[in-house]
Amino acid sequence: CCCFRLTRLFQGQESFEQAPMYVAVMTYLGFGLVTLFGYFRDFLRAVGLEKCHIAKERDEQKDFVPLYQDFENFYTRNLYMRVRDNWNRPICSLPGPVFDVMERVSPDYNWTFRLTGKTIPNVINMGSYNYLGFAENNVDFLKTVAERVQQYGLGVCSTRQEMGNLGIHQELEELVAEFLGVESAMVLGMGFATNSTNIPALVGKGCLILSDELNHTSLILGARLSGATIRVFKHNNMQSLERVLRDAVCSGQPHTHRPWKKIMIMVEGIYSMEGSVVCLPDIVALKKKYKAYLYLDEAHSIGAVGPTGRGVTELFGLDPSDVDVLMGTFTKSFGAAGGYIAGKKELVDYLRSHSHSAVYASAMSPPVTEQILRAMRCIMGLDGTTIGQTRVHRLAENTRYFRSRLQEMGFIIYGNDDSPVIPLLLYMPGKVVAFSRAMLRRKVGVVVVGFPATPITEARARFCLSAAHTKEMLDKVLFDLNEVGDELCLKFSQRKYTSRPKEQHHNNNDLNKDFKQDSL
Amino acid sequence: MDFKNVKEYLGWLYYQYLLITSIYVLEPWEQSIFNSVLFSILAMVVYTSYMVVPVHVHLALEVFSGICGEQPESTMALMN
């Protein structure tokens, strides 16, 4: 990230260390070998020596255009299927800081699974998006949610525009606007659909979208659906963005050279695969200079960063009205489902009648709405307790502690020091799989991500910290990571870090006690 | 990591080899195929170098000693 010096005062350090050369070489070699064996197995299946477990064309269709010959299907058949016991693991409890995983075995190398009926209890959850710990089933906290179920039932059976506009929806929209510090907000039932159906309402043909390299699929889908021209700039790179903006403003639309109707910059608050935080002050400065609009997707950063959990605008000390369209989801920090779009009142009123999901999608379910209301009131302190603020501080403490210990141990970690999303680089496909299995044996559940979602040489494990993790849980996870890291030789970092100062011990212990008292 | 005996250490080294070459994800019979192919290639390399390298080294030493041996003799001949 190339930021001006001013922003360095506000944001933590970001690091994207490169691994030694032999790691990249061995990763390519590994993929090459498994691809060769993939061709060999495809040959055996074509000849008939081996039964084909996956979809293939019928004999009558052999002369048609092939359906399953492209690289994606090859990759699924020959690489993903071999190791797919590390993904889609069924769980059978609340996804809180610990959860229960159902045990399953495969008699035929992961083509089919069979549940044994046993569960693996109390696995530490390092994968769920539960940043403030609101994924809980404490009866006292959920009393109002239960009341709403009794009052409204569960289904709304209509869209907001027809019969589905309940009083609590309007209450929630006012609370979201107050939380973010903007004029008005609109709430929708699904977070992905908030992006993919609202962007077509904001931009159209003749407009330009400048999208970060690593934007989420929902943003890319919304941009493509809108029909606007899309140009990509390098991830978090302000020089690249400025160059693209200058070219766009100077040359105009592709063939006619007319000025663009609108230029919109689309960025995210925290990028969940990298753990990096956007350079917001620089983008706001650029947008004002070149008269563009800014669309900020705070799916992972709302509630999780900032001194009071208000997101990246608070982290950098900016005025929320500098960002034209603030978007976020309630799935991550609020333990619910859905998304919001916020900004000026004219913008939100326009979107209420022109956005696809605002007009056609069914309204948010009442207990989910009440869960968001109670979580947001808790964070803002409006319910009279300090539970919310304690959780925000606890998340920041956990983030700092976990990141610094991982770096001390010698792992390569990506991202900003303030972000609760921590990618730990594993690189080689064999190690990715072995890591996931070894951690589950030690009762820690991690999420590993490989090729289509990340670049081919940079497979990683992604940790999502939570305010509900106690220091003992984090210490256990760190101990297991240390052992597994030594066993699998995962400590690629070549930097030397000093050990953390003793005073942090005291801070962690005090907050530990506070959190325990509040959660009784 | 502490290894109780050499066998455990060798087992860990084999595990590292499986992970680094990504052979770990393959089924056991495929691993056997790859191991035997790799072993035969390595055996051929070792055998060839055993047959070829001493002969070549001997020849090379002869050539170099021939050059160094001739030089002082020819200057002596010229002077005489």
TrEMBL record, chain A:
E.C. numbers: 2.3.1.50
Enzyme class: transferase
Similarity comment: Belongs to the class-II pyridoxal-phosphate-dependent aminotransferase family.
Alphabetized UniProt keyword annotations: Acyltransferase, Endoplasmic reticulum, Lipid metabolism, Membrane, Pyridoxal phosphate, Sphingolipid metabolism, Transferase, Transmembrane, Transmembrane helix
Protein encoded by which gene: SPTLC3
Principal place of residence: endoplasmic reticulum
Record bears the keyword Acyltransferase: yes
Domain of life: Eukaryota
Protein name per the record: serine C-palmitoyltransferase
Coiled-coil boundaries: none
Keyword Disulfide bond: no
Pathway: Sphingolipid metabolism; Lipid metabolism; sphingolipid metabolism
GO CC annotation terms, alphabetical: endoplasmic reticulum membrane; serine palmitoyltransferase complex
The organism of origin for this protein: Esox lucius
Domain Aminotransferase class I/classII large span(s) in chain numbering: 122-478
Compositional bias of kind Basic and acidic residues: 500-520
TrEMBL record, chain B:
Pathway(s) it belongs to: Lipid metabolism; sphingolipid metabolism; Sphingolipid metabolism
Membrane topology of this protein: Multi-pass membrane protein
One Pfam family here: SPT_ssu-like
A GO term, aspect molecular function: serine C-palmitoyltransferase activity
GO cellular component, one term: endoplasmic reticulum membrane
Single biological process term from Gene Ontology: endoplasmic reticulum organization
Subcellular location: Endoplasmic reticulum membrane
Keyword Protease: no
Tagged with keyword Zinc-finger: no
Keywords: Endoplasmic reticulum, Lipid metabolism, Membrane, Sphingolipid metabolism, Transmembrane, Transmembrane helix
Domain of life: Eukaryota
InterPro entries associated with the record: Ser_palmitoyltrfase_ssu-like
Residues spanning the membrane: 9-26, 32-53
Family: Belongs to the SPTSS family. SPTSSB subfamily.
Subunit structure: Component of the serine palmitoyltransferase (SPT) complex, which is composed of SPTLC1, SPTLC2 or SPTLC3 and SPTSSA or SPTSSB. The heterodimer consisting of SPTLC1 and SPTLC2/SPTLC3 forms the catalytic core of the enzyme, while SPTSSA or SPTSSB subunits determine substrate specificity. SPT also interacts with ORMDL proteins, especially ORMDL3, which negatively regulate SPT activity in the presence of ceramides.
Its biological purpose: Component of the serine palmitoyltransferase multisubunit enzyme (SPT) that catalyzes the initial and rate-limiting step in sphingolipid biosynthesis by condensing L-serine and activated acyl-CoA (most commonly palmitoyl-CoA) to form long-chain bases. The SPT complex is composed of SPTLC1, SPTLC2 or SPTLC3 and SPTSSA or SPTSSB. Within this complex, the heterodimer consisting of SPTLC1 and SPTLC2/SPTLC3 forms the catalytic core. Within the SPT complex, SPTSSB stimulates the catalytic activity and plays a role in substrate specificity.
Protein name listed in UniProt: Serine palmitoyltransferase small subunit B
Organism name: Esox lucius
Lineage of producing organism: Eukaryota, Metazoa, Chordata, Craniata, Vertebrata
